[in-house]
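A quick aside before the break. I want you to see a complete sequence-to-structure record at least once, exactly as it would be stored in a machine-readable document. Don't worry about memorizing anything.
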Amino acid sequence: MAKYYPIFLNIQNKKCVVIGGGEVAWRKVCSLQEAGAKVTVVSPEFYPELEKMVGVERIKRKYDESFLEGAAVVIASTNDEEVNKRIYYDAVKRGLLVNVVDRPEFCSFIVPATIMRGDLCVSVSTGGSSPALARNIRESLENQFGKEYDEFTRLLSEMRKWALAEISDDKVRRDILQRIAGLDILDIVKKSGVSEAKKKMLEIVTEKTSSSK
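That is the input. The structure line, written in tokens, reads:
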């Protein structure tokens, strides 16, 4: 079994090709779209929800290697094992990242079980050895990461942009960003809301910048 190097991939505005038109393919297309990809789906038939999706290029044909042209990522999700293998070898030949669903031995990357809370992404993987275990762990974590993490990460993003623009001292800026990301600030978001958390963050900024002078 391969050992995978954990990585988050920027596919914004990049062409991603999904071969297959069933429910699994539809779920893959949804995830790719959420990440900002330009998605092309190739299949003789399409799952009803996939047929209705906006912003997706649908090619109603059987697979041909030419459909991989210009792709950054390829996902094979057909019900034909031989076609899936062919897609894998065609993609590898072209130097493309490829994933054959539920066949880690025919993948140059695998997709982990993921929890998304705004900009926070928590991913769990067993390296393909047990997707079911990864899914179970993800489900056990979902209740631990509520909507407050969405609000907290948005606030941290706002404060980080401000700090990068307004605080020239690298050490002071680093200290501030580390401090305002503390779990005690998250507790304020949970109990009192974003406004109170931002007020506390600004107090920390004032304290840190004053002590550095």
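Two observations worth writing down. The CA atoms of residues 20 and 43 lie 5 Å apart. Helices lie at 23-34, 48-52, 81-93, 131-142, 147-166, 170-180, 183-192, 194-211. We'll return to this after the break.
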